[in-house]
Amino acid sequence: MRFIYSKVFLWFSICLVALVALLFFQSRGWLSPAEYLIAQAPRPLSRLVNSIVMPAKNFIQTIGSLRKIVDENGRLEADLLAARQRAADSDRLAAENALLRQELGFKKKSNLPLHSCSVLSRDPEQLADALVIDCGENQQLKEGQAVLSQGYLVGKVFHVGKFSSTVFLITNAQSSVDAQISAPNSERVTGIVKGSFGSGIIMDFISQNAPLNKNDLVTTAGISGTIPKDILIGAVGQQLSKPEDLFKKASIISPVDFRNLDFVFVVAQP
Asked: If I label 189, which of 36, 135, 251, 257 is the partner at 20 to 30 A Cα–Cα?
């Protein structure tokens, strides 16, 4: 027991002396270099940690920024697409309004009794060169009536329903109408205008002795009772017949775009 007490007392004495010495050295300022070293010791470790952590932090921040940029680009592309769609819709409406004004202008000038109709669809039931319009028995339409666009004949009513009708365009191979060529200082030249698959519109059954000149106007002849006389059809294009053929035949050029008809007029029968 004496030995333990003596050893403890010895260590206590050493620590007490060391503490007194440290306090003395500090009061003299002799421990300042040691304090500076101790204070600076964590800095290399801090720099090492920062060299590892900061690149990872910057990478994560970069990924977040890229994600924000991608999201922002997606929103901008969607806004741009919507703006383009609005511009396209505006252009389409402007074109339709211009066409409608043109059609209404023709209706005011025309002496024909006309029914204004909108095109509902094209090529119903896989029928080539046909339209469905929103006029029918409700507007007293009848089969065989002439259908006009921009003042030109574009077809005939083929079938009449209660509120809609089917129109065969003059480009349809099943459509035909009696016609005449209006050439200045020339005798009356008649024939049949009909649709021709792959050739658009042709005028056939023209007498071989009749004059046939390019760009001569072609109008309805008014022989049938359903379609009035002198409705424009188009102009003579290229002669398709040969001298040895029994009749002359020529292509007819119409200024109407048959694939983009939105409004038409049906000529009412008296």
From this structure: 257
